[in-house]
Amino acid sequence: MNLRTIVLTTAFTALASTAYAADCAVDVEDPFDLEAAQINEIYDCIKAKMVEGYTAGDNAVAAAYRDWTVTSTRPAVAGPHGNRLLQTFANDVAAEQYLKFAEEGVVMPAGSVLAKESIKINKKKKAAVVGPLFIMTKGEAGAAPDTDDWIYSAVQPKGKPMKIKQSFCHDCHAGWAEQDSLAYPLEEVRVSN
Q1: This prediction's pTM
Q2: To 10 degrees, the CA torsion angle through 161, 164, 166, 168?
Q3: pLDDT tens per residue across span 139-148
């Protein structure tokens, strides 16, 4: 995977996405009100549509991430990323360190890539919609000094790259500096290593 290609072809200007509705009905308006069984139903309904959309373009991460290690038992909403349900996948380089879910002294190896599927609840349509595929790539030391060598990118729900302001993403992720800027899935859904 060419790191520069990912950076140059994917990014985003805001968290608002051009998500499109899937035929996945939701009977609550607030994603925080969803029970685990409801989230699993939504994910089962929408996951094929997500993969189809993300891979409609030519993003190398979108084409590969479903073969990586899934880091949670189901998607969960923690508040960041616009209150979307997130399901995170870690590539082979990232998986061992990431799955420790350590809170201090974390240093992810260069070449680590995390891909976060996202699902947004459309309150007006009472439906789950595919959100962006958010991507974090750890570069070599000095590759991106303003973002602790993380390069942020995203793929829109129909496979097109999103424009991203690196500082927009990193300003939030920097709150987890001791975790090498990683905001892990909620504890209740983390897979055990």
Answers
A1: 0.85
A2: -140
A3: 999 999 999 9
> Residue range 84-100: average pLDDT?
96
| Spatial contact of 188 and 76, defined as CB atoms under 8 Å apart | yes
Cβ-based neighbour number of residue 93 at 10 Å: 17
